[in-house]
C-alpha cells in the first residue's frame, strides 16, 4: 500500500477536521474584526502576531528565483489579504463571501495549466466552470447583487491566492514556517503603510475596539494562519490534495451556520444554490485530480 492510498490515521483526520473548523470560525471572526477596524489595518495587526512568533524562522530567499519568490509573497500576502478584507468590510452578509473564498482551488487549476503547463482533464475544466458559475449565480439574489462589489473583490482576492499557490509549487521545497514568516513580513509594513495612506480613524478604532476584536485578530494570526497551515502542510506531504480537499469543504458549511447564528445573516435559497454549485465544482476538481493520478 502506498503512502497516498493508505487510510487517514486518526490523529491526521482530527487535524484535517480541525483545519475546517478553525477556518470556518475564522471567517466569522474576520468579519467581526474588520467591522470594527479599517480593513488594511486589520490585516496588518493580524499578521503582526504571526511575525512576532515566526520572525526567527526567516531564511534567505530561494537562490536564483527571487522574482518568482517576491511575486508569490505579493499575491499570497498583501494583494490577497488587502483585497479580501476590503471586500469583507463592504459586505453586509458574510455567507456569499465565504463561497467566493473557495475559488482559489479552481483558479489554481487555470494558472497551473497556463504557467506550469499541467495537463488538465475535461472533468477538472468542468469543475472550474461549475465553481465560477456557482459564485456568479449568487448575484441573482437581490441581497447579494446589492453587495456585488464586495463579492467581486473577495473573488478577485481568492483568484490572487490561487495564483500565489501555483508560484509556491513552482518554487518547491519551501519550509512552512519560513514561508509564513516571509508572508507576514511582506504584509505588515505594506498594509500598515497602505492604512496610513488610504484609511483614517485608526487610533480611535483601536482605542475603542472591544476585546472580542483583539481575540479575533489573535485567533486569525496564531490559530488560523500558523496552527491550521502547519497542520495542512504536514497533511499534504502525506496524502493527496484530492483526498484532503473534500474535508476542507466543511469550512463554508461551518461559516454559513455561524453566520446565521452569530451574525444573524439571512441564508437565502439562491445563496444556497450558488454555494452548492461552487462547492460541487471544487469537489469535481478534487475528484478529477485523484482520477488523473490514478491513471498517470
TrEMBL record:
Subcellular location: Membrane
Example of a GO cellular component annotation carried by this entry: membrane
Membrane topology: Multi-pass membrane protein
InterPro entries for the chain: AA-Vitamin_Transporters (IPR050638), EamA_dom (IPR000620), EmrE-like (IPR037185)
A Pfam family the protein falls into: EamA
EamA domain residues: 14-138, 151-286
Span of the signal peptide: none
Principal location listed in the UniProt entry: membrane
Residue stretches spanning the membrane: 7-25, 37-57, 69-88, 94-116, 123-140, 146-168, 180-199, 211-235, 247-264, 270-288
Record's keyword terms, sorted: Membrane, Transmembrane, Transmembrane helix
The protein's name: EamA domain-containing protein
Organism expressing this protein natively: Candidatus Viadribacter manganicus
Amino acid at each position: 500500500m502506498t503512502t497516498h492510498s493508505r487510510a487517514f490515521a486518526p490523529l491526521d483526520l482530527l487535524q484535517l477536521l480541525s483545519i475546517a473548523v478553525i477556518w470556518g470560525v475564522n471567517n466569522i471572526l474576520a468579519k467581526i474584526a474588520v467591522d470594527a477596524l479599517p480593513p488594511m489595518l486589520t490585516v496588518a495587526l493580524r499578521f503582526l502576531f504571526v511575525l512576532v512568533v515566526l520572525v526567527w524562522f526567516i531564511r534567505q530567499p530561494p537562490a536564483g528565483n527571487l522574482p518568482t519568490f517576491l511575486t508569490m509573497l505579493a499575491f499570497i500576502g498583501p494583494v490577497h489579504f488587502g483585497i479580501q478584507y476590503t471586500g469583507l468590510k463592504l459586505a453586509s452578509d458574510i455567507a456569499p463571501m465565504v463561497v467566493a473564498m473557495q475559488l482559489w482551488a479552481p483558479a489554481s487549476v487555470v494558472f497551473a495549466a497556463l504557467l506550469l503547463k499541467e495537463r488538465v482533464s475535461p472533468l477538472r475544466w468542468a469543475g472550474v466552470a461549475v465553481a465560477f458559475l456557482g459564485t456568479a449565480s449568487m448575484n441573482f439574489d437581490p441581497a447579494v447583487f446589492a453587495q456585488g462589489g464586495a463579492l467581486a473583490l473577495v473573488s478577485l482576492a481568492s483568484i490572487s491566492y490561487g495564483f500565489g499557490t501555483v508560484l509556491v509549487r513552482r518554487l518547491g521545497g519551501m519550509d512552512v514556517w519560513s514561508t509564513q514568516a516571509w508572508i507576514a513580513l511582506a504584509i505588515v509594513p505594506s498594509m500598515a503603510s497602505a492604512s496610513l495612506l488610504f484609511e483614517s480613524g485608526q487610533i480611535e478604532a483601536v482605542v475603542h475596539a472591544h476585546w472580542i476584536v483583539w481575540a479575533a485578530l489573535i485567533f486569525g494570526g496564531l490559530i488560523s494562519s500558523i496552527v491550521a497551515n502547519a497542520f495542512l502542510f504536514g497533511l499534504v506531504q502525506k496524502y493527496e490534495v484530492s483526498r484532503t480537499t473534500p474535508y476542507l469543504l466543511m469550512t463554508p458549511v461551518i461559516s454559513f451556520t455561524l453566520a446565521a447564528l452569530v451574525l444573524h445573516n439571512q441564508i437565502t435559497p439562491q445563496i444556497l444554490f450558488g454555494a452548492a454549485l461552487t462547492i460541487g465544482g471544487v469537489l469535481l476538481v478534487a475528484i478529477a485530480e485523484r482520477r488523473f493520478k490514478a491513471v498517470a
